[in-house]
Amino acid sequence: MDTRMTAPRASLQDARSSRLADAYAFVASRHWTFKVGSALLVLVLAMVFFAPWLAPYDPGALNLISRLRPPSAEHWLGTDHLGRDVLSRLLVGGQFTVTISAITVVISLVLGTLIGVIAGRAGGLLDEVAMRVVDLLISVPDVVVAIFLIGIFGPSYFTLIFSLTLVGWTPYARLARALTKEVNSREYIRAAEVLGMKRSFVIFRHIIPNTIRPIAAVSFLRFGHKLITVGGLSYLGLGVQPPNPDWGLMLAEAQPYLERAPLLMIAPGAVIFLAALSVTWIGHGMEIERRGARVAGQ
Q1: Domain span at residue 89?
Q2: Are the C-beta atoms of 279 and 40 separated by less than 8 Å?
């Protein structure tokens, strides 16, 4: 065999093994809440994104003869009031909730971080105006904004994302502004200013990298909140519309049959709880380590 062909392959395999080893070492050295939360999150994400291949039945297929059947070898979690397989609907139903929550958190994180960093860096009138806007919007629950806008424009992906992002960026902006104020007093920032570096370079090269870790921890905590919010809106009929499956909608449809088939509510409720708990534990573990590192550094 030509050694010129095997050498690049060997180096590529070594690089992959090194990255896997680094990732394993990173997770193994974290707080236990981070480890458990990461394991739960991987399980939920695998269930959601591989749902088309894992679902044993079509989640929308009706079979009124088999309605409200208990768990069996044929239907592991039973069937709902229309004879649809609960496991299949549970697997596919997480795609909407997880996707909308993730998109909302990413947009809010980017927007809020940029606003907070720019306000904290600029100071003066810009900082004062930005923080007063944050104080105004952060006092309004995102659920109220979502219900109001969906009531006007109707339920849709865009309306839901926009309504949850409209006030969702404010916690990130407030945190990013406080962290920027702290970083501004450090010597390397002053050195960069003395050397005449551009403001944008200082922000993206020095300030954001040194503030992103606590912001990332908050984003995981907010992601759990968004999961519950999106599920609650679907439960109220303001999210996914029937017959499409969704965890919150499954809770609403199962409520009239709680006594006869309690698993119809227990299953989606448990998945929402585990998904929210996983990201909350990840954020909690990151925050514990950040505080420990900060105390050690002092």
Answers
A1: 31-297
A2: no
Q: What total number of domains does the chain contain?
A: 1
Q: Is 284 within the bounds of a domain?
A: yes
Alpha carbons 146 and 61: distance in angstroms, whole number: 31
- Inter-residue contact 278 to 226 (CB < 8 Å): no
What's the whole-model pTM score? 0.82
Place of tokens 């104020």: 181
**Ranges of the chain with pLDDT below 70:** 1-30, 193-195, 289-298
Spatial neighbors of 15 by CB under 8 A, at least 6 apart, are none
Cβ 267 vs Cβ 33: under 8 Å = no
Tokens of 62: 């009706």
- 21-37 per-position pLDDT tens digit: 655 665 666 677 888 88
The CA distances from residue 208 to 108, 118, 211, in Å, are 15, 10, 5
What CATH number has the domain bearing residue 185?
1.10.3720.10
Q: Where are the extended beta strands (E) located within 118-215?
A: none
Give domain status of residue 26, yes or no: no
CA distance 91 to 68: 18
The answer to whether the peptide bond before residue 243 is cis (omega within 30 degrees of 0) is yes
Q: What is the pLDDT of residues 164-217, one digit of tens each?
A: 999 899 999 999 999 888 888 777 777 776 667 777 777 777 788 888 888 888
Residue 7, in any domain of the structure: no
> For residues 258 and 63, what is the distance between their CA atoms, to the nearest angstrom?
20
